[in-house]
């Protein structure tokens, strides 16, 4: 079977010795030693990895047990501090090699290291700066270019994703998807495409939202709502539930009909210009919406939208508008707690396991808010998942580009979820929903057990507010 690039690179290299001198810490960084200049080594002078931020890393190792790739492989260069060392080498004159890029590509961008770091190292900024450099200067293989081209010609385009729904529903209803999977042919010939097919969720009916939804009772706030790309096409029920809950809690909901992708996938993959173009278009779409908050129900999207001020700081026509836009962006759990509950919560007699989406917990620092919303529901019991800080392996498009390590992480996450004894897994990101669903289904098949129910946080709250039966969450 063809191996994914991360596995090929990991097996082909031995980095235990690194490049240090005997008796010295090979990872020690003196900011004064870090050079700059046009293509002085791996990076050009357009926003290279920040030397001062690199110098913040004291290589204490607190990040190691939270880094998914280090946990899997135990290799120093596949840890945050190892990648920071490679960034330093690139600034000091080392060329951008396939091996160096392999270590950067292997990073999931989960930001668990940012949470764990006692020194406040801004690894999130460093890896995004580095990936933009990689995309500008590294020549990828023809197969890698083709796969990335397919991904980015599809996933950030809501209309194209909606066109996929028809053929995908036919495959699912006829069982053709399962038949193809049983042959194993696609996995042998194109494991990345096989991973993409296995991740596709079971599709229900489309639920387009109107441009304006009026609050029930006295209006408390006017909010704009992002419908998203994957969320809108593959999880329309999550958007519908979000609108219903906001309406029940006294919000007028504005849904700009010309909105598109927020740019998160592109920004996280280093496709900087593409990400900026998406961001500017979204700012335009919400310009005249007249809203007090912009509500997001997808963790990765919210993380990027909150950083539009930095992303578009060098765009004269957008810098101020992007800053105002970013100031309005909130995860839906933040808005609901800000408002406080008004609609009655009906009991849900269920035990759930709550999975922290990385870009919600680590990138946005939102952990308590969704837990508070869930535990306020009468009858609901929340269980914490062991190794909660370890990514599930979704990480945007990582589980397509690197299916083997992503599956290892997914299986690890599924086993930890099952240990909780919960009946329902709840999370707040479409990528996590797809990845963890596939992992839990695989676990159930291997162990002869019943697949676990899956739901977005807002779907659970919606079921409680509207008195829906538990089966609406459990039957997927």
TrEMBL record:
It comes from the Bacteria. Binds 2 [4Fe-4S] clusters. The keyword Membrane does not apply. The keyword Acetylation does not apply. Pfam families: CCG, Fer4_8. It catalyses: glycolate + A = glyoxylate + AH2; (R)-lactate + A = pyruvate + AH2. Signal peptide: none annotated. Residues 1-29 are annotated as: Disordered. Keywords: 4Fe-4S, Electron transport, Iron, Iron-sulfur, Metal-binding, Repeat, Transport. InterPro entries: 4Fe4S_Fe-S-bd, 4Fe4S_Fe_S_CS, Cys_rich_dom, Glc_ox_4Fe-4S, Helical_ferredxn. It is an enzyme of class 1 (oxidoreductase). Its cofactor is [4Fe-4S] cluster. Its EC number is 1.1.99.14. Residues 47-77, 98-121 form the 4Fe-4S ferredoxin-type domain. NCBIfam families: PRK11274.1. PANTHER family: GLYCOLATE OXIDASE IRON-SULFUR SUBUNIT. Component of a complex that catalyzes the oxidation of glycolate to glyoxylate. This is Glycolate oxidase iron-sulfur subunit. The lineage of its organism: Bacteria, Bacillati, Actinomycetota, Actinomycetes, Propionibacteriales.
